[in-house]
């Protein structure tokens, strides 16, 4: 089950679409925090002062995290930004602090509402520090529930405050030290208006009679934030270019190279793509007879960092080529989930008819509500029911199945009768 309550990528500004990053020169620039840029907290005395300040504040806490996933192996936090009414903005360098520091922070803010933009991106990094919300408000998710076309933090600030929030440091290497002053200014601005934005979004949700939807989604996010991460099965299968490979032998080359790269990335705390790009792995695997010469003729292996580890790549290639047929990875994994719907017309015609009817019905309902269809209900949920519907396939039984899959009450209330009607029409 996906950790995203809507089964769509959360829009953090470092991952936002280009239109979310478009400059708005006609709007005034939100250039500096109203209270200035606070000093970075990186000593025990400063941490204790920060705890006291947060405890003396009131209301929810706005939280943001800066990571360095484009540069580092892990998704750990390299800067925390917190803001609370009465205590101002706090910038915390996590690197000098130990577990007891985070326990003190968790005790101070753990029971108040956290305001986060795109929570599914930040809560894993916070959970690594032992920081888990009891309740939260996700401003990005609130925007999606309101049907807003652009829900990055920048566009929401523009819409509600008529200010342009510059995002020029969104892809910076936040693991570098010392952090430049202009980066700290950028980081502080990410939480400068988050509390006010939360209140304005909540008011719109209430006016649209969708505040209860949001509360259910936020509760689901908080619940998921407390759960340990689930390891992916065969993560190497997500290597770019895999769709071009057709044989178990080719997949074996990808697998061995992927694990060799992953071990090096972990050891040196480097983003895997900085060591060897996915494209190079797939290109080598696609060769009819992959060899040392093939490797040396592929651009990705010519990079300075990749050349440094040529012995590792050749050893991985030798391991892959030496595997007996019985140890080669299968081209397709067995799965409990249905195959892609495009294959249903031949393998399961009744399911295909249900899928066509359900797709049109869900899309129509989402349009009626002004939502993207995937924001109304996770597509995998209703596809599962198309493949294997309950018996009888009425709204009550469908709702029960959706609940088991993870759909929230508001989603079940809206979608269950829509699916029941679509299934009945498809089976006539």
Q: Compute the gyration radius: what is it?
A: 25 Å
Unreliable segments of 5+ consecutive residues? 13-24
How much of the sequence lies in strands comes to 5-15%
For the record, give the distance between the C-alpha atoms at the N and C termini, rounded to a whole number.
Answer: 32 Å
The CATH topology assignment of the largest domain is: Nucleotidyltransferase, domain 5
Mean pLDDT: 93
The CATH superfamily of the largest domain turns out to be: Ribonuclease H-like superfamily/Ribonuclease H
CATH architecture call of the largest domain: 2-Layer Sandwich
Structural category: alpha/beta
What is the spatial order of strands in the main beta sheet? 1-4-3-2-5-6
Please indicate the count of domains.
3
Succession of helices and strands: HEHEEEHEHEHHHHHHHHHHHHHHHHHH
Helical percent range?
40-55%
| DSSP summary: helix tally | 22
Largest sheet: 6 strands, mixed
Shape: flat
Number of strands: 6
CATH class of the largest domain: Alpha Beta
InterPro entries: 3'-5'_exonuclease_dom (IPR002562), Exo_C (IPR041605), HRDC-like_sf (IPR010997), HRDC_dom (IPR002121), HRDC_dom_sf (IPR044876), RNase_D-like (IPR051086), RNaseH-like_sf (IPR012337), RNaseH_sf (IPR036397)
GO molecular function: 3'-5' exonuclease activity; nucleic acid binding; nucleotide binding
Pfam families: DNA_pol_A_exo1, DNA_pol_A_exoN, HRDC
Protein name: Ribonuclease D
Characterise this structure.
One of its GO terms (molecular function) is nucleic acid binding. One of its GO terms (biological process) is nucleobase-containing compound metabolic process. Residues 247-327 form the HRDC domain. The protein is α/β, with parallel strands linked by helices and 428 residues long. The chain folds into three domains: 13-225, Ribonuclease H-like superfamily/Ribonuclease H (Nucleotidyltransferase, domain 5, 2-Layer Sandwich), CATH 3.30.420; 235-327, HRDC domain (DNA polymerase, domain 1), CATH 1.10.150; 341-427, HRDC domain (DNA polymerase, domain 1). The protein is built from 22 helices and six strands. It has helices spanning 18-21, 44-56, 99-109, 119-128, 139-145, 153-161, 181-192, 194-207, 211-225, 248-268, 272-275, 278-286, 292-296, 299-302, 304-308, 310-322, 344-347, 349-369, 373-376, 379-387, 395-405, 409-427; strands spanning 40-41, 58-66, 79-85, 88-92, 113-116, 135-138.
């Amino acid at each position: 089950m996906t950790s995203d309550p809507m089964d769509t990528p959360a829009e953090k500004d470092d991952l936002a679409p280009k239109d979310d990053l478009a400059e708005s020169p006609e709007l005034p620039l939100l250039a500096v925090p109203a209270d200035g840029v606070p000093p970075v907290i990186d000593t025990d005395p400063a941490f204790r002062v920060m705890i006291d300040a947060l405890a003396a504040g009131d209301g929810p806490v706005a939280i943001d995290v800066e990571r360095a996933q484009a540069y580092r192996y892990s998704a750990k936090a390299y800067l925390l930004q917190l803001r609370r009414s009465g205590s101002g903005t706090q910038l915390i360098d996590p690197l000098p602090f130990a577990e007891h520091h985070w326990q003190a922070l968790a005790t101070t803010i753990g029971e108040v509402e956290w305001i986060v933009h795109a929570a599914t991106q930040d809560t894993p990094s916070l959970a690594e520090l032992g920081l888990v919300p009891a309740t939260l408000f996700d401003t990005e998710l609130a925007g999606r529930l309101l049907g807003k076309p652009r829900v990055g933090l920048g566009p929401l600030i523009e819409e509600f405050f008529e200010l342009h929030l510059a995002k020029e440091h969104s892809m910076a290497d936040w693991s570098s030290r010392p952090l430049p002053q202009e980066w700290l200014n950028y980081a502080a601005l990410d939480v400068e208006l988050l509390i006010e934005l939360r209140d304005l979004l909540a008011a719109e949700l209430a006016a649209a009679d969708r505040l209860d939807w949001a509360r259910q989604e936020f509760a689901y996010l908080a619940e998921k934030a407390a759960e340990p991460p689930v390891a992916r099965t065969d993560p190497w299968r997500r290597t770019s270019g895999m769709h071009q490979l057709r044989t178990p032998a080719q997949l074996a080359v990808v697998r061995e190279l992927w694990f060799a790269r992953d071990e090096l990335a972990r050891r040196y705390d480097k983003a895997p793509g900085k060591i060897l790009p996915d494209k190079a792995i797939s290109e080598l695997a696609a060769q009819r007879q992959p060899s040392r010469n093939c490797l040396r003729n592929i651009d990705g292996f010519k990079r300075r960092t990749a050349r440094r580890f040529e012995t590792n790549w050749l050893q991985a290639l030798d391991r892959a080529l030496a595997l007996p047929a019985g140890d080669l990875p299968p081209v397709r994994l067995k799965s409990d989930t249905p195959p892609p719907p495009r294959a249903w017309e031949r393998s399961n015609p009744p399911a295909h008819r249900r899928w066509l009817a359900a797709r049109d019905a869900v899309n129509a309902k989402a349009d009626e509500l002004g939502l993207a269809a995937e924001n109304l209900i996770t597509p995998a949920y209703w596809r599962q029911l198309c493949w294997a519907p309950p018996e009888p396939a009425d709204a009550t039984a469908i709702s029960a199945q959706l609940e088991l899959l993870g759909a929230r009450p508001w989603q079940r209330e809206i979608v269950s009768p829509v699916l029941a009607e679509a299934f009945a029409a498809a089976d006539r």
